[in-house]
């Protein structure tokens, strides 16, 4: 394996419900080839850290051994401020779409600003669930032969990691933040707001149809994801929801 320059500012590579320990090893190998070491696993199989994973890593052992394990995708992305989700299927969600190359350019701009970001990769057979994709700001799709575009997990990780590595000195796109502005809110903060909003929407009856609720929740989350909210903006939204609820209760008390 050729030597690489390690990046402490690169994307976290998040494997969601990986099915084979060998694929974790080969994904780690692809990462280290391109200087990446932040490997995160969501709900892997109990035997994921096996000799097969270490053998498949082929020298990238430390990436595997230092991988962080999470029970849920929400926990795995909580400290990140921007997330991409890899998918080859139409998810019928309104989200920006990147190729690995355009994603890498955007990631380099974020890294220059100190923003934390990562990329979600789904299980080998099924890909990411819609609820996983809904946590992302942007979708990554690899432009391949439309008659045969199947990639294994390590290939997909390699393509994204390679484009990141090759974009080391890009012409950065215009930034959306001015000097001194707040960075984007972390996924943890966004998820706290989503929970607050969804509880109140349940309470007022907006999400009263159980069969429609999952899609409605995903659509609401996607709307806010596209806004690239800052911590201050999330706090403002918390305050708006709180005041609307308080007003509704006061109005109800007055009628009584």
UniProtKB/TrEMBL annotation:
Its EC number is 2.1.1.200. InterPro entries: Alpha/beta_knot_MTases, RNA_MeTrfase_TrmJ/LasT, SpoU_MeTrfase, tRNA_m1G_MTases_N. GO terms for biological process: tRNA nucleoside ribose methylation. Its main location: cytoplasm. It catalyses: uridine(32) in tRNA + S-adenosyl-L-methionine = 2'-O-methyluridine(32) in tRNA + S-adenosyl-L-homocysteine + H(+); cytidine(32) in tRNA + S-adenosyl-L-methionine = 2'-O-methylcytidine(32) in tRNA + S-adenosyl-L-homocysteine + H(+). Keywords: Cytoplasm, Methyltransferase, S-adenosyl-L-methionine, Transferase, tRNA processing. Residues 12-162 form the tRNA/rRNA methyltransferase SpoU type domain. One of its GO terms (molecular function) is RNA binding. Gene3D superfamilies: 1.10.8.590, 3.40.1280.10. Signal peptide: none annotated. The keyword NADP does not apply. It is found in: Cytoplasm. It comes from the Bacteria. GO terms for cellular component: cytosol. Catalyzes the formation of 2'O-methylated cytidine (Cm32) or 2'O-methylated uridine (Um32) at position 32 in tRNA. Belongs to the class IV-like SAM-binding methyltransferase superfamily. RNA methyltransferase TrmH family. Homodimer. This is tRNA (cytidine/uridine-2'-O-)-methyltransferase TrmJ. It comes from Magnetospirillum aberrantis SpK. The lineage of its organism: Bacteria, Pseudomonadati, Pseudomonadota, Alphaproteobacteria, Rhodospirillales.
